[in-house]
């Protein structure tokens, strides 16, 4: 997972925290996997101290569970919290898109954007191009990370430290849900980013806000409906054709 577009080089703890989180989100460390400081230190080529600090932070974020004398394990995907997470993100992202558009309008009316704005905007352009290429190549597995980077980039454009920090706190869990079901809506959802970016560039705060809200709401509705379908799937053995209950003895 990438650090903030404007944050510079992360600390060792932040770097390994991002890498562990990334590996959890994309299934390299599946739910239920037992993890230790020593194994992670060897895996990421770092000392145990930043790994220990990273695990504590990831426990607060909900990616890791730790129990006394039992060690740490990767948490389950937060399906039960999905509705609330999406609701919070919808409000946050609508606000960041609105602020980003207003800032763009102010930048251009002042004679031209500053260097920081241009750096972030160029990074977003590159992310959109990468995502379009991934879609064209059928590489949907690349979209969750690019999606994270796009949405955090819009937050960077808004230059709201509070909104960006709040978004960072929940973005990982949202992308965990996204990555677990990216084949269903990933391509259609990705195409919506260009319209949001166009509204921001035009300084149209209302269109940017509405576009982002609709974008996140569409993801929310789609993912929740699919998770409900999975929860509603039969949990008991199928009956044989004769109508007698299946023998479930070992």
TrEMBL record:
Q: What residue stretches are annotated with the HTH gntR-type domain?
A: 10-77
Q: Which terms are listed as keywords in the entry?
A: DNA-binding, Transcription, Transcription regulation
Q: Which CDD domains match?
A: WHTH_GntR
Q: Which Pfam families match?
A: FCD, GntR
Entries under SUPFAM superfamilies matching the protein: GntR ligand-binding domain-like, Winged helix' DNA-binding domain
Q: Give the residue ranges for region: Disordered.
A: 225-250
Write down the superkingdom of origin: Bacteria
SMART domains assigned to the protein according to its UniProt record, in alphabetical order: FCD, HTH_GNTR
* Name assigned to this protein: GntR family transcriptional regulator
Q: Which organism is it from?
A: Arthrobacter sedimenti
């Amino acid at each position: 997972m990438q650090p903030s577009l404007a944050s510079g080089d992360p600390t060792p703890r932040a770097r390994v925290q991002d890498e562990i989180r990334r590996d959890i989100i994309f299934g390299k460390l599946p739910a239920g996997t037992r993890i230790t400081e020593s194994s992670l230190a060897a895996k990421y080529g770092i000392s145990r101290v930043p790994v220990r600090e990273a695990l504590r932070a990831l426990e607060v974020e909900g990616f890791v569970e730790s129990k006394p004398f039992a060690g740490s394990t990767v948490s389950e995907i937060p399906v039960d919290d999905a509705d609330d997470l999406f609701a919070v993100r919808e409000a946050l992202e609508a606000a960041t898109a609105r602020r980003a558009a207003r800032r763009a309008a102010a930048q251009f009316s002042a004679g031209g954007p500053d260097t920081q704005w241009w750096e972030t905007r160029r990074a977003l352009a590159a992310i959109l191009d990468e995502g379009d290429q991934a879609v064209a190549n059928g590489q949907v597995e690349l979209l969750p990370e690019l999606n994270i980077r796009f949405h955090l980039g819009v937050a960077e454009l808004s230059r709201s430290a509070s909104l960006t920090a709040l978004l960072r706190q929940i973005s990982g869990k949202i992308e965990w849900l996204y990555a677990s079901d990216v084949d269903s809506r990933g391509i259609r959802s990705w195409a919506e980013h260009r319209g949001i970016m166009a509204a921001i560039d035009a300084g149209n705060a209302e269109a940017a806000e509405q576009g982002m809200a609709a974008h996140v709401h569409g993801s929310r509705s789609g993912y929740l409906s699919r998770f409900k379908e999975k929860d509603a799937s039969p949990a008991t053995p199928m009956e044989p054709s004769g109508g007698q209950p299946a023998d479930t003895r070992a």
